[in-house]
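User: Sequence in, structure out. Go.
Assistant: Echoing your sequence, followed by the structure tokens.
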Amino acid sequence: MGKMEVEHCDFVHVHQDVVEDVKSRLPAVEELQELAGLFKVFGDSTRIRILYVLFQREMCVCDLAQILDMSQSAISHQLRVLKQTKLVTNRREGKTVFYSLADGHIETILNQGMEHIQE
């Protein structure tokens, strides 16, 4: 097997105007790290399943566990992660806590991801 060729410039010449223009448009490193963390949360199929259920309607942990055929403690653990990253929100009604999507962005993100994989 031969050595794999890596893409590179044949002639080293930095296009300083282009570099400065692009650098000025990049988000702060902290913002990019936060965005990467958000996408990491989407990297778990159980959390994706929970989000898809919550597209349909708000739901309590018992109902989520029944639909997804999982334990309530497993669902609660994943809901904690989703809540920490502001993907879901909850409200209390008596002794029951209902969970729902935090906002419409979550559905948009998942729909666009689904469109991408179905191309």
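User: And one key feature?
Assistant: The chain has a mean pLDDT of 92.
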